[in-house]
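Reopening this one. Same input as before:
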Amino acid sequence: MSRIAIVFGLLLCIVTMMALMLTMQKMPSQFCPMMFGIPMLFCGVVGLNPHRRKHAMHTAAAIALLGTLTGGSSVLFAMFRALRGIEVNSFAMEVVIAMTVLCTIFLVVSLISFVQTRRRRLTPG
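Same output, byte for byte:
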């Protein structure tokens, strides 16, 4: 699970780097994926230590949950702004949607892993 956290942390950082390379216009929302990617990457590296894995992976899952909630709410508010006729930057929303999707996928994978680990511990034998 630690390696998966490292991969998703790197993917979030890559989303930010691609957003910075694809446009000259800099927006605060371009840096959101990296704000969640760096801590997730750090948790993945800490989780490589077996004694710290449980806490690191739970922290990474919490970071993914925050990324999902933050990105989802941002997209929801942008949709409301667009419905009222206020102009919304579509490139910034694409970056935030990519972050939300990556965080949601990591969160689901983490929850599945947590449930499987729990079942293995409870099963005698």
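So the earlier flakiness isn't reproducible anymore. For the record, The chain has a mean pLDDT of 92.
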